[in-house]
Amino acid sequence: MNREEGFNLLKKHIKNEKMIAHCLASEAVMRALAERLGEDKEKWGLAGLLHDLDAEIVQGDPILHGLETEKMLQGYGLDNDITEAVKLHNEEASHGQQRSKKFHYALAAGETITGLIFATALVYPDKKLESVKPKSITKRMKEKAFAASVNRETIRECEKIGLSVNEFAEIALNAMKKIAPQLGF
Known about the structure:
Radius of gyration: 15 Å
Number of strands: 0
CATH class: Mainly Alpha
């Protein structure tokens, strides 16, 4: 599956524009992480793009989220490590299987930090990603009440791929800034 096919599949299953923006942001972050870590940008980008493909089908059910996407992606010829990373980005649905590879940690942390970055942008007067600084994201990491649904421990899994939270936040923010018009920010 190439990127265009992946995007078309996403649009087929996800109608909520904010969820599409989240998936696009996750794709951008994963591509940037792949570049920084010397990994396959296409593979990592597809995982970011498709990781929430089942979001509207499972309607937030944490036991099913990821498992349904894994089923939906069967038959598309994707590498098993993509579907495995997609399934494991939500460990609640993994039935005892835990993240153990760089790809797993990158996807879980990468898709999670997008929510913190979006929330940070929304508190700025212009509500633009361009105004956000990496230091603002790391400061917000410490404020548990801010974007309370964003799991800080999952974001800290960036350390398992050799990145500090500061460097990770900078990579993610810069990746999202590059596609800010597509994200509506």
